[in-house]
Known about the structure:
- The protein is of the alpha/beta class.
- It is about 40% helix and about 10% strand.
- Helix 2 crosses helix 7 (about 225-240) and helix 6 packs antiparallel against helix 9.
Amino acid sequence: MSKGGDKSLWDTAIDEAKLAEEDEAKASEEACVLFVGSKNAGKTSIILRFLDRDEAPKPTTALEYTFGRRARGHNIAKDVGHIWELGGGTWLTKLMDIPINTDTILHTSMIIVLDLSLPNELWFTMEKLLNAARTQVDAVVAATNNIDPEIKIKLKKRAWERLGQDHPDKDMIDPFLIPLCIIGSKYDLFQDFDSEKRKTVCKTLRFVAHTHGASLQFSSTKQEALINRSRNLISHFVFGTPMGKTMQADHNKPLLIPAGLDLLQQIGTPPLPDDELGMGLARTPMDLWKQAFTSIFPQENTNNPAMVDDPAKDIQYAEGTVDSMRIQKNEELERYRRLCERRAKDARQQAMNEGLVY
């Protein structure tokens, strides 16, 4: 028997069992974060550094999954965070429906990693991924509405709680329904850009992040201080640890702007001549920023399957029997192609001989 307020070993064991049951009941509510972004932007490296895995990053094929665990005080149970990474840049956005679904929508966050060293691909990649993610989230909300008619109201409320209900720019912000962060990677290369170009990229990303209710930070796998920032961000998303309110908005330094702390007045106007601010085809402030950014950095279309590495040629997926059969089939295909070409050539020659083709 226990005396006073002390618990016996038996009581403690019962409490631990109850906690384990509660953890199991909440298993479906474990946090999930989806990484998307520019091809070769360093998404895998950021994830590996967060997980403290000392291994060389491998190219991500399609959609890959891993997880992180964290001890929860003195309890036996551990917090589990699910981490998804979408490869292929902007080409495989349809796969977002796997991590973002009706079961996960209330506890999923998204991180968009953009390669700062390639500004001529940045806007296209960012716009494509944001649009695809918004479409998927809206589709999930619509599908969940039959089960939970209040789902959109819940997500909106949470979004404004992250930003602040009384934010001065409230009328200009359309918050993303799930927590969102934009990471600008390869800052070690970006910091050597011309000052005005850096300023344009920084102001543009600040505007996009702010109007989507997102956090923004720059990172580099070459700078430990910036890696620690990324670690803290992911930990916040998957384990709910405090994110902090430190802000760095100087374009001469790596940006660090938590959601809701920026202001349109501080961001300023798009980098366009005064006589062009009210002209052109821009119908919204976002269109105006796009016009300004793409006039300085003409965009290249990265949504090309040919740009995605062929996993069949990746040695990490080598399978002797399968690979030899593939080589055999490729050789058969090449022989068939040559045969078809020869037959077509012979048919044309015969037609010419018979005066049917000139």
